[in-house]
């Protein structure tokens, strides 16, 4: 019986705005490289693509869009890179993703907009590559406000961030034990958070032989189609 090929690990870092994600992603990337691991860093939204530029304008409040339109653009931005992420993983490169589909669902569902149920928001991202581990950085409102730049972009409002956090909690519960979803206290010092993330990631540092999963691939086909076309 032949051994299964080892591929790169797919690591996703999620969190509320000003939770320290970007700093922690950079530290994690540096740690993995120091261990001799080939690493690719991906940030969503990717504001460099044609779709990403539309999203960037919206986030800076330089343009307006229907809530459903912008949600679908965020999802399309992820699908733009889905194949290249899978190719990187299969080549043995570990991929660290700063935000992913979970943010797309949380920020859209938190709007409580008509026609944008949690299930509808999840629909467009069904079958994207599934992460091997998701690290959610939980930050308090007090720490958010204390960190520089909070409030500069459209979604950086305290009441909205609270609703976003509630949706993230639902996602974490829904994903279950097999998803490897971990919440980390991001109110700690940067070094302490980095140490906790490394403890969780280290078992995957040299890759994994598990087949690459697909997000919510076990949803009933009829329900899946209904979510996509409502």
UniProtKB/TrEMBL annotation:
It comes from Ganoderma sinense ZZ0214-1. InterPro entries: P-loop_NTPase, Thymidylate_kin-like_dom, Thymidylate_kin_CS, Thymidylate_kinase. SUPFAM superfamilies: P-loop containing nucleoside triphosphate hydrolases. NCBIfam families: DTMP_kinase. GO terms for cellular component: cytosol; nucleus. GO terms for biological process: dTDP biosynthetic process; dTTP biosynthetic process; dUDP biosynthetic process. Pathway: Pyrimidine metabolism; dTTP biosynthesis. GO terms for molecular function: ATP binding; dTMP kinase activity; nucleoside diphosphate kinase activity. HAMAP family: Thymidylate_kinase (MF_00165). This is Thymidylate kinase. Its EC number is 2.7.4.9. Residues 13-196 form the Thymidylate kinase-like domain. Pfam families: Thymidylate_kin (PF02223). Gene3D superfamilies: P-loop containing nucleotide triphosphate hydrolases. Keywords: ATP-binding, Kinase, Nucleotide biosynthesis, Nucleotide-binding, Transferase. Belongs to the thymidylate kinase family. The keyword Cytoplasm does not apply.
């Amino acid at each position: 019986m032949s051994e299964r090929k080892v591929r790169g690990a797919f690591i996703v870092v999620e969190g509320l705005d000003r939770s320290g994600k970007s700093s922690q992603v950079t530290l994690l990337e540096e740690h993995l490289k120091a261990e001799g691991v080939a690493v690719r860093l991906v940030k969503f939204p990717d504001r460099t693509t044609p779709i990403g530029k539309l999203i960037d304008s919206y986030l800076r409040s330089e343009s307006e869009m229907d809530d459903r339109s912008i949600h679908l653009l965020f999802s399309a931005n992820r699908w733009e890179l889905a194949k290249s992420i899978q190719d990187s993983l299969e080549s043995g490169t570990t991929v660290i993703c700063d935000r992913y589909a979970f943010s797309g669902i949380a920020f859209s569902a938190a709007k409580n907009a008509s026609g944008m149920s949690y299930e509808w928001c999840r629909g467009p991202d069904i079958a994207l590559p599934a992460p091997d581990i998701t690290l959610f950085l939980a930050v308090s409102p007090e720490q958010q406000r204390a960190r520089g730049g909070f409030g500069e972009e459209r979604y950086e409002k305290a009441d909205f961030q609270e609703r976003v956090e509630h949706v993230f909690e639902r996602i974490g519960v829904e994903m279950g034990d097999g998803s490897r979803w971990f919440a980390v206290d991001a109110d700690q010092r940067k070094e302490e958070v980095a140490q906790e993330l490394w403890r969780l990631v280290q078992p995957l540092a040299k890759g994994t032989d598990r087949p690459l999963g697909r997000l919510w691939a076990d949803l009933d086909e009829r329900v899946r189609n209904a979510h996509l076309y409502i």
